[in-house]
Amino acid sequence: MTCLHTPSRRMALGLIGATLVLPRAASAGGLDTVSGSAFGTHWRIAAPAGSGIARLAPGIDSLFAEVDRQFSPWRSDSAISRFNTGPAGLHTTGPALIAVTAAALDIAERSAGAFDPTVGPLVARWGFGPIDRGGAPDWRGLSAGPAGLAKARAGLTLDLCGIAKGWALDRAADLARAAGFENLLLDLGGEFIALGRHPDGRDWRLAVEAPLTSGPPPAALRLPDGAAAATSGMRAQSYSLNGRLYSHIIDPGARSPVAGGLRSVTVVARDALTADGWATALCAAGEEAGPALAERHDIAALFLIEDQGAVHEIRTGPIAEVIL
């Protein structure tokens, strides 16, 4: 995910290119849309024409503002920043931060540390994040429980940028359901969750953008009711130096940006938090270990790998069921 923050205009423009998009044909007649900005990127909702979707906008804006106050490492007054600058031991905090941290630690364990929510100082070292203090990553030094969050040493920091946007999208879907909306597609910075069906009576559809260049979409997906999709990859934040591409996706084992030809991973899951977290984990695992990890956990994933100027796919789990 894009790290939750309010960036400069220059950085925001570099972050907005999403790797999943609503196809133009799907965004034509028969739909109303409403949109806004959050976390240095965009949000958008598409729904059947005449459904009154615009009335959701104030609630979505308020929801995302609260998420930012909880999870943004760019804000010194956020709940996560207070935890990061605090001493070792137990910290009382809100249920949202506890729940997302618990989910992050679960994926960290299941991915053997490919997803590491303590990787923030390494992200900053390579020029992509604000957590410029703290020692070596060690997700096992964190714990989450009903009483709050605990860390084994003062220098340990928490970075939920690889999963919190998915959680925010799930909460937006909850808000829409509570308001009585049954058919819509929510987009938060290129992560999507579908409710119901398109006005044409079919599942909602997405296009997977070319991972680095403006070529034709390499794949299209359908999202059944309740399903979510997220992509992690090089397109959102990366730079080239001496012929090598450096991205914001950090390999915790190597303590450096992911190397090799893997350019993006798209995951379809039962909720956006799961899709977001596993897309991050599989991308961090790399082009060899990532597909093996996805197969082991039966994750619906599409890997796009560049080799000598050509891009090829690896499909895992039930992803074939949703590729058009």
Relevant CATH superfamily of the domain at 79-151: ApbE-like superfamily
Biggest sheet strand line-up: 2-3-7-8-11-16-17-18
Task: Provide the gyration radius in Å.
Answer: 19 Å
Task: Quickly give the structural class.
Answer: alpha+beta
> Cα distance, first to last residue?
24 Å
How many β strands by DSSP?
18
The assigned CATH architecture of the domain at 79-151 is Orthogonal Bundle
Order of helices and strands: HEEEHHEHHEEHEEEEEEEEEEHEE
Low-confidence stretches: 4-18
Helical stretch count? 7
User: Biggest sheet: strands, sense, closure?
Assistant: 8 strands, antiparallel
What overall form do the CA principal axes indicate? globular
Estimated helix fraction: 25-40%
**What's the pLDDT, averaged over the residues?**
84
Task: Fill in the CATH topology of the domain at 79-151.
Answer: T-fold
| Percentage of β-strand residues | 25-35%
Give the helix/strand layout:
Layout lengths: L8 H7 L4 E2 L9 E8 L2 E8 L8 H15 L7 H6 L4 E3 L3 H16 L9 H6 L16 E4 L2 E4 L12 H15 L5 E5 L2 E5 L8 E5 L10 E5 L4 E6 L4 E4 L2 E4 L2 E2 L4 E2 L4 E8 L2 H25 L3 E8 L2 E7 L8
Antiparallel strand pairs: 1-9, 2-3, 3-7, 4-6, 5-6, 7-8, 8-11, 9-10, 11-16, 12-13, 14-15, 16-17, 17-18
Helix pairs in contact: 2-6, 4-7, 6-7
Polypeptide structure, described:
It is a single chain. By secondary structure, this protein is α+β, with helices and mostly antiparallel strands. The chain has a domain at 79-151: T-fold, CATH 1.10.3980.10. The protein has helices at 9-15, 57-71, 79-84, 95-110, 120-125, 164-178, 272-296; strands at 20-21, 31-38, 41-48, 89-91, 142-145, 148-151, 184-188, 191-195, 204-208, 219-223, 228-233, 238-241, 244-247, 250-251, 256-257, 262-269, 300-307, 310-316. Strands 2-3-7-8-11-16-17-18 form an 8-stranded antiparallel β-sheet. Strands 1-9-10 form a 3-stranded antiparallel β-sheet, with no helix packed on it. Helix 2 (57-71) packs antiparallel against helix 6 (164-178) and helix 4 packs parallel to helix 7 (272-296). It is globular, with a radius of gyration of 19 Å. The two termini are 24 Å apart.
